[in-house]
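During the reporting period the student researcher (J.K.) took over the structure-prediction task from the postdoctoral fellow and processed the backlog of single-chain submissions. One of the processed entries is reproduced below for the supervisory committee.
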Amino acid sequence: MTEGGMKPARVVVADDQTVVREGIVMLLGLLSGVEVVGAAGDGEEAVRLVAELAPDVVLMDLRMPRCDGVEATRRIRSEYPGTQVVVLTTFADDESLFPALKAGARGYLTKDAGGDEIVRAVHSVLSGDAGLSPSIQRRLLERLSQPEPAVVATEAPDGLTARETEVLVLIAEGLSNQEIARRLHVSNATVKTHINNLFAKTGLKDRAQAVRYAYGKGLVRPPGN
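J.K. obtained the following structure tokens:
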């Protein structure tokens, strides 16, 4: 029992790095309010432990072999809705955050979170609230306050992903790589990867061609239209 007389939350820790996983388990073992009932080295094992142990919460890493944290979260929330998921990861970029939340995670913390913050997040999601760190809350608010790119409702051409199309539209709006990174809350390296991918798929060679391509495909409208 905890100091308030409540049973501790039963937790499974999922992380593919043994040292990190064991460190989290050891840290939580020193705190009241949680009880670690299992530890998984990848998403497949996390799903299996949820089926076997029916924990209250899984602390889920994202980048793991066999089955990553997003897919494991989706499966757990679909197949075992009595178990909540709190992401505990190194990554705080939009491409990690939003897929995890869409998959059903109710909490999201980065690995610089302290033990007390992890325990608070666990109990927050069990009480029906979101267990988000302050930095993640700020990121969500910033994203919601950003104007949406002027994308015309049309199917992305040449096999472009939604994010590659979004980057293409921002290029057409005249934004630099650094400005695109700030707008999308991702790193400059991530932006460069998207640009390289979309250039390879479309056969484009430079940004000027990308602008003409975006307008020619109807992905953006000329000003005033």
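The committee noted the following: Residues 188-202 form the longest helix (15 residues).
J.K. will present the remaining backlog at the next meeting.
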